[in-house]
Specification:
The structure is a homodimer of 495-residue chains. By secondary structure, the first copy, chain A, is an alpha+beta fold. Chain A folds into three domains: 212 residues, BirA Bifunctional Protein, domain 2, CATH 3.30.930.10; 106 residues, Rossmann fold (3-Layer(aba) Sandwich), CATH 3.40.50; 76 residues, Translation Initiation Factor IF3, CATH 3.30.110. The first copy, chain A, is built from 14 helices and 25 strands. In chain A, helix 13 links the parallel strand 20 and strand 21. In chain A, helix 2 packs across helix 6. At the A-B interface, strand 2, helix 2, strand 3, strand 4 and helix 3 of A face strand 2, helix 2, strand 3, strand 4 and helix 3 of B. Strand 5 of chain A pairs antiparallel with strand 5 of chain B, so a sheet runs across the interface.
Chain lengths: 495, 495
């Protein structure tokens, strides 16, 4: 394949993003399937690691996986009015089953009595089954999750960030009280925060969405918002308090401890392959992909350096031995023994693919019992490491990188976050087309003001930060209208 | 939920199968989505274990996972003629995107220029991308796999065995020579065999399909065939030698070492949630599900036995301690401390769900430092085990069960397999509607004879056994026509 040249971030951020994905062979547009993508092995391996980290936490908190149908009867969509409105335009619709050949051409055969939509999300079909399975408070809480593909026919698509088909998990739970459902919503939001912080090394702000930005059919939507390197916000995952809306739409009732029938209280929460987009835009650089070690499909690339054949044998033997030792420590190690390729070209390739640590071994290293190591990011210095304690040293370097990436992203966010109190300053900040900031400003709480600010600046309210996030609560005046405001909210341009 | 009564196998085998699935809460028909199913948590947990066992073996043999689009342009299906014919009638078709509300009712909005089919399998769409990615022999072999849902609009459906939507893995590989592709086909068939034998504890026979039963578009289809408890055969997985058929249809070429362009040689291979059906029908009994320990979501259920409150405290404390020790050994353990439920009812529930080992702990056991253990199958005796060495003893019992299930299934198959040389005997054996056998008989190799035998007896050729499978090769005369035959083939009624 032709080599991909990576456009520098400063020149064209959007193009840089695409180039990083192409150069690391993470994914590509499907083209022949409108708005959809193919996730290639290196991209899917990252997704498998994200899945495993989330799945473990879901199971530790008592959730079980299940699988519900891909297709949803069209009539189901109508049962919850807001939900139907919210998703109607985005649905792919199955109208026929079976094909026939007419004059050598394939044509549609049997039209279905009722069309199905390809699930854009599964609240409706899962609601139908919850109604069958739940009868008493003893059946609650019901804590399910599914890993699957969903489809939303989007007009403007972008690899990982917004594609027609994407892969995600959707948790769906039913509870006996609103308080329990609210606890669940917060618990799952915290799990997303933990995975962003501890695994993706991407700092996020937890908050509530405004009414305009809520999930269609929810009482409240909570989110985690991350800053990308262009200062824009990316919504990283959502957790919804569905109240009794779907319970009423699908007649999901239970007999409570007092013997009275009531509708269940539900939640749903999801995170998708979009997380890979967040990962790329938070850490990568003009040399390509940067991965936190916890998500790297390959942790260490060992590049042997030699000129003569006898050197090659000696060096490769040591490289394989070191690789074996590191593998025993649980690391994934690639010994790059490709012939006819210069070490520099190999360095460049592993760099583009985001391998956290590169180790070089040459004849002199073998004699000295050392190797040369270089981290992919956060530290430009090459290090000479003794072979005897390589496992320990590599472990330290990978731990360092995992933490340093988070600290770097946190510092970047801090440097690009401001509190703004005047409308003039607000407008000025969001004028810049290339870089933008997170702005904490007062808002009067009305949808009209929210809309007016969006139209004037393209900045939207990303969230009403939860307690402990963003600046300490203090009353003030709305940056746009001057009306009273209880606390600052987070404004940003967004993906 | 109402308790499910399990119909005995001898009374109605098909009903027994459904009852076992319902009683163990593995899955249920979706009903509102024609022919589709919901896989419930206990069923999905078994699937996750099967996935993990297969996935590890795929990765160890150099395969990588990726994800290709759910939807396939209708025109792609037409490019390989046999493939199109084979799958046309089974395709669900997406014709519209977007819905609108007309007089409060949802209606379809935008008709697509070209319809898409929901993938029944992915050779065509993957062929399209292989053509983009493969240019030289250096790009080969390309060894990919995807875990996904597929859809085939079947007329008669049955949970796990044949459903509209099902979950599977499909491997797709491209090679520089036919010999390499043939090796891959055999390698993957052997992996399926290994997982059936070592994990599902279900013996299988590897063989080639007849031309009539080949995958649409393949040169050869190989399969593993398992015997169910009614003597019928179940096709457990398939591995296809696609030759250059898809290479030619999708123009997938490479430059070989000699600088000449040639079409790639491809394989595909798949195993699905059908494996759960095989598992159920091979091992389960009139008391419900029986699981080999390697696939059991819960290995051990500990049931505390007590009458008074102080007994309860003592017994539960010990039960939890023992559970902790077993968990440290890597086992999944459930301490069934539910109140208001008698031990017998608990035994019955874990039995229905197929938990391999039940442990009872009462006050006297606590005093004596022992527990009572009972295996789910293959051994009716209750055993008194010392707490001090419980981990070791439990490990032995689970190992015993894993092996004993395989041996039992192997013995059952041996007892129900015959060699038949006369047409009268052949007809007689397949007359019985309730139980049936595996029959090794000579066949003249023609499709006409194969069809005539099927029409007369409902028995089909399950496979032409590979070397080492079934009776030793010996020449003979076709059981139907008397024409010469090089070796016996496997006949059976099938799922």
């Amino acid at each position: 394949m032709a080599e991909v040249v990576i456009t520098p971030r400063a020149k064209d951020y959007a193009q840089w993003y695409q180039d990083v994905i192409a150069a690391a062979e993470l994914a590509e547009p499907a083209n022949v399937v409108r708005g959809c993508m193919v996730v290639r092995p290196h991209g899917w391996a990252i997704w498998e690691k994200i899945q495993s980290e989330l799945d473990r936490r879901f199971k530790e908190t008592g959730h079980q996986n299940a699988a519900f149908p891909l297709l949803i009867p069209l009539s189901f969509l109508q049962k919850e009015a807001q939900h139907a409105t919210g998703f109607a335009m985005e649905c792919a619709v199955v109208t026929h089953a079976g094909l026939k050949t007419v004059d050598g051409k394939i044509e549609l055969k049997n039209e279905l009595e009722e069309p199905y939509v390809v699930r854009p999300t599964s609240e409706t079909i899962i609601g139908h089954f919850f109604a069958k399975w739940i009868d008493s408070y003893r059946d609650l809480p019901l804590l399910l999750n599914q890993w699957c593909n969903v489809m939303r026919w989007e007009l403007r698509t972008r690899l990982f960030l917004r594609t027609g088909e994407f892969w995600w998990q959707e948790g769906h739970t039913a509870h006996a009280s609103h308080a329990e459902a609210e606890e669940e919503v917060a618990r799952m939001l915290d799990i997303y925060r933990d995975v962003y912080h501890d695994v993706l090394a991407v700092p996020v702000i937890r908050g509530a969405k405004t009414a305009n930005e809520r999930f269609a059919g929810a009482l409240e939507t909570y989110c985690v918002e991350a800053m990308m390197q262009d200062g824009k916000a990316l919504q990283g995952a959502t957790s919804h308090d569905l109240g009794q809306n779907f319970g009423k739409a699908f007649n999901i009732t239970f007999q409570n401890k007092e013997g009275v029938r009531d509708f269940v209280w539900q939640t749903s929460w999801g995170a998708s392959t979009r997380m890979i987009g967040a990962l790329i835009m938070a850490h990568s650089d003009d040399n390509g992909l940067v991965l936190p070690p916890k998500l790297a499909p390959i942790h260490v690339a060992i590049v042997p350096i030699y000129k003569k054949d006898d050197e090659r044998v000696r060096v490769l033997e040591v490289a394989q031995k070191l690789a074996g030792e590191l593998r025993d420590d649980g690391l994934t190690v690639k010994v790059d023994d490709r012939e006819g390729m210069k070490p520099g070209a190999k360095y460049y390739e592993w760099e583009r693919k985001g391998v956290p640590l590169r180790i070089e071994v040459g004849p002199r290293d073998v004699d000295a019992g050392t190797v040369v190591a270089k981290l992919r990011a956060c530290d430009d210095q090459k290090k000479v490491l003794p072979m005897a304690t390589l496992g320990v040293e590599v472990g330290k370097l990978l731990d360092f990188l995992q933490k340093a990436l988070f600290e770097r992203a946190l510092a970047f966010r801090a440097a690009n976050t401001v509190q703004v109190d005047s409308w003039a300053d607000f407008v000025e900040i969001f004028k810049d087309e290339k870089t933008t900031k997170f702005v904490y400003a007062h808002w009067d709480g009305t949808g009209e003001t929210e809309q007016a600010i969006k139209e004037a600046t393209k900045a939207t309210i990303r969230c009403l930060p939860l307690s402990g996030e963003g600046p300490a609560p203090e009353a003030g005046k709305c940056v746009r209208t001057g009306n009273p405001s209880a606390r600052r909210v987070l404004f940003a341009k967004n993906y």
